[in-house]
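Section 3.1 - Work completed
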Amino acid sequence: MTDLNNQDITETETESTTTWILLQIADSAFPTGGFSHSFGFESATKHGFVTEYNGFKGFLLSCLQNAASFSLPFVNESHKNYQTVDRIKELDGMVQAYLSNHVANRASIRQGNSLLDTACKTFGYQELKNLQVQLENKGIFGHFAVMFGFMCGLLNLSVIQTQQLFLFSTLRTVIASAVRLGNIGPLQAQSIQFEMQKTAEEIRKKFEISTVEEATTTAPVTDFLQGAHDNLFSKLFYS
């Protein structure tokens, strides 16, 4: 009985540790580079595709769908193979080949590089530093979805926690960009984020076991709008 109790305590302590890590990564103060991106929302508003509240919610839904259908398979696979550097490099190369939207591609690289740098300085694991050396030597591109899954796997977060955290970061980034652009207020933003949680979880479950061979864009208009970001004369966000 004592051994069973000790095992329960150990498992509880492990879960508590990963919860603290999860909260730290989810904190908006954790610098992953997302603050300079809008997932195409700035382009959508300035090109007149999102002009009202319902339009914003529709755009937000499309962003979540694209993140889940395209990026989540790479998050899953890199989380699963975080101990195999060659597989991580292969997945990173696949994202580079698949992500033909030049704005989304450079945003993914920039945010992934920022995440890896932050993770190295925050957590200090040698595996992270080794991957950063690969990045500095141009052995990898450092795409965000792959770096995210790799980091979370290394930190012992479960695949479900990792998926939820990834979609949460997408949700928060788009909503935060709407606040900074003046489309919604901060309190309304929190209400929308709470309202979208159930939908985000439903989307996660739909794509939770998708493979990288099944990675696809399910909301192409949103993808096109992000690609048009460079056509803006003046802009607040990098993408």
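Second construct:
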Amino acid sequence: MPKVISIGNQGFEDIRKENRFYVDKTEFIREWWESGDSITLIMRPRRFGKTLNMDMLKCFFSNQYADREDLFEGLTIWKDEKYRSIQGTYPVIYLSFADVKQTNYADAVKKIKRILSDLYQQYVFLLQENCMTEMQKRQFSEVSPQMDDVTAQCALQDLAHYLYRFYGKKVILLLDEYDTPMQEAYVYGYWKEFTSFIRSMFNSAFKTNPYLERAVMTGITRVSKESVFSDLNNLNVVTTTSEEYETCFGFTEQEVFASLDTFGVNEYKNQVKEWYDGFVFGKRRDIYNPWSITNFLDKKKFDAYWAATSSNSLVSRLIQTASSEIKEQMELLLQNKEIVVHFDEQIIFEQLDQNENAIWSLLLASGYLKAVEVEYRGLLREKWYHLQITNLETMGMFMMMFRGWFDVSNSVYNRFINALLGGNVREMNAYMNEVALATFSNFDSGTHPSSKSQPERFYHGFVLGLLVELRDRYQVKSNRESGYGRYDVMLIPRNVAENAMILEFKVFDVEEEYSLQDTVKSALRQIEEKQYDTELLEAGISKNRIHHYGFAFEGKKVLIDGQ
């Protein structure tokens, strides 16, 4: 009989004691220990087993779990005598920043102080021992939610010192979700002061700590070294493109198919692969999303389980306000195509608004895109990444995101789509002006929008919306003539018996045109002059089924005409 699945349980001890469903990842223990790295920073997408693996490390190394062979009996690591002798022999400090999601600096620091205070409460027994001086006991007692910043920044090194004095052995330090507060600090505008605080803490805990044996940190994003790790020279950074720990997070295809057999649902292997496979770590291309797999095994139905666990608000905002070039690349991705881009995998949060290519680093680290190839170019061997949308589930996440852009006017947007498909120009005008009025400002970066850049940003958001809404019925092709304020969209029906559409977008030119009527006529002329019909006629679509529409923009006003 298959084991019971415990959704969301990230406690290794609980899972093993209760004999719950578990995919053996104890090889992670061996790989990390034998790497010899002083400090390891591992990046993996959310819900990829980071917390469970960190808890497993704690249970394996911590002397609080000495002689707990019951937790590892039958697992790969326990077959090795060397590791059986290591189990439960180190003082381990474990903490998580997963819940540090405050909207301002003061509350974020207060939350971290509470985490440190709760951590110290696990070791109050040290105060009764003879391993501390009176001064150290006073320092220990000063650690509380009300402590000053310096006490908090030194707290991890101090605790390592106390444990070293008591056990006579250096500590292993495990910090889970190290970057959660960094993202919140960026989103809510207190990045500079927060990173200054955390940099001092990390320097004390990891750089100048003589009582540290080794350390592991996990997170989703690789925050730039300059931001928080400027003093750490002994840091091994493992990103999704690194070849270390390739199979330690997420499930391999072999592990997934074995689980499907165990739970009696092996007939769904192909669909499971389409929905949840596709993650690439290092050279391994067969990594599945563990959160979605365990949910599927539990519920026996396909759904966007992983996509539903996050609001993706930061990613959505960055894409929505991005340049036309970024949106064009998103259009290609949404059509299951590959893009090739150059960026730094380190995320410098404070540069996200200036360096647009940083969005690709965030999407790759978050698991929304996969690197099917990393190419090295030029004398400096710069990395160029070949990116695709990861799988069907992440495709669905992007589609929901782009739909969300028009939420303010979602029903109106849908009515516009229906008017477009029905060829009703009067209704198209009414609905499109409502949509433009409600959403134009959302597609701008907030700097000084020009009369051309704002419609262009909206245009690409509009095209992404069309790709989502009409993907089953139409192939959507878009083209932009840079510098001319002209952009066109071709809707090619998948069924040649349906109508095809060519949409020409043009921004009002005050020097050449007197009114939006002139602009819309110019847009329609452009369709004729460029002979856009040719491609559609060659595809077997009859001339009378090809409809032309001109879209003229002036500020937030739109005029549409057709022929």
